[in-house]
Design a protein that fits this description.
This protein has 330 residues and is mainly α. The protein has 15 helices and no strands. It has one domain. It is 74% helix and 0% strand.
């Protein structure tokens, strides 16, 4: 899959939105929209990666996908949990984070303390577990239609859920957050085109997140999510055109360390530190997480990938494998 740097810049925008929200919700009442942007972006990227592998190699290596996702997400989270355990946080809070059910723990009103924000990681883990199975099961000829139907159904369910189930469920549950994820997935199979109006999507997200109405409790808070979803879809369409400002070096670096930044900022921002102290410490911890933990462990699946592909090519070759053409691909 071709890497589009502007999507990393968009990831930086999303994490800045979330951090701003956690720093001061009165100034940035709808900064939580950054999570919705993360979901749409993740749905798009994971779907593109999966269908590229299926189209190129004829199959998905599910074991490799799960190992790669686990290596990407678990070590940094484990280090955060170990540090917090050292400073006295309880296993009752660490368990839902490590077990990736923090979103449902929140729905059950379990106090997760400094790990409250890991509800987002739980939703992503459920998506990573289930979505490859869908891609592997749906024939390519039906892929666009099937994912389109799933996306529409997920959005419809969120609309229904807003008025029929608790706000806590709508905000945290995997099934309701599937709306944003599947909207991104559908973009992944349609290969988004650039609309001129889409260039306003990111500024619109940044401006509208300041509107108090979108941070109010009740329907306004939840219906605003659909505004964010629409703008996030447009933002992906804009980013794939590679706008120069989203490929700015600072944004790309923030996008690179965004996972660690998401993990660590919540700890410092929710301490008794002033924001001007907490934010630099968050960046420093995120940089350490990236360079000392995340980046080194990512070399493991990369080395395995380099060894795996030549073996697959050899196995598929009728000359090298000694198999007749009639048996290839059966």
């Amino acid at each position: 899959m071709e890497r589009i740097a502007a999507l990393d810049g968009l990831r930086a925008v999303a994490v800045v939105m979330v951090i701003s929200y956690h720093v001061d919700k009165t100034i940035v009442p709808a900064g939580y929209w950054g999570v919705i942007l993360f979901f749409v972006l993740s749905g798009y990227l994971i779907t593109r990666m999966l269908i590229d592998e299926v189209d190129r190699h004829g199959r998905l290596d599910l074991r490799f996908f799960y190992v790669k996702r686990g290596v990407r997400l678990f070590p940094a989270l484990a280090v955060l949990c170990l540090v917090l355990l050292t400073f006295g946080i309880g296993w009752s809070q660490v368990g839902p984070a490590i077990g990736h059910y923090a979103n449902y723990a929140r729905i059950a009103e379990i106090d997760l303390g400094l790990l409250t924000h890991t509800w987002f990681l739980a939703v992503m883990a459920h998506f990573y577990l289930l979505w490859p199975l869908v891609i592997a099961a749906v024939p390519a000829v039906y892929r666009r239609r099937a994912i389109g139907i799933l996306a529409v159904a997920a959005i419809a369910w969120r609309v229904i859920a807003i008025e029929t189930v608790s706000p806590g469920w709508v905000y945290n549950a995997t099934d309701t957050n599937a709306a944003a994820l599947l909207a991104g997935c559908y973009l992944g199979v349609t290969r988004p085109r650039t609309w001129s109006i889409a260039s306003w999507s990111v500024p619109a997200l940044l401006v509208l997140m300041l509107f108090p109405v979108f941070g109010e409790e009740g329907s306004a808070f939840l219906w605003g999510d659909l505004v964010a979803l629409t703008l996030s879809v447009m933002a992906i369409q804009y980013a794939v055109s590679r706008p120069a400002w989203l490929e700015n070096g600072i944004l790309l670096w923030v996008g690179e360390i965004s996972y660690g930044l998401y993990l660590w900022h919540y700890v410092f921002v929710n301490s008794e530190m002033a924001a001007w102290v907490a934010l630099p410490l968050s960046v420093a911890a995120a940089a350490a997480s990236w360079y000392l933990i995340e980046k080194p462990v990512l070399r493991w699946p990369a080395r395995f990938e380099r060894r795996r592909r030549p073996r697959e090519k050899e196995a598929r070759s009728p000359v090298l494998s000694g198999r007749s053409l009639s048996t290839i691909g059966r």
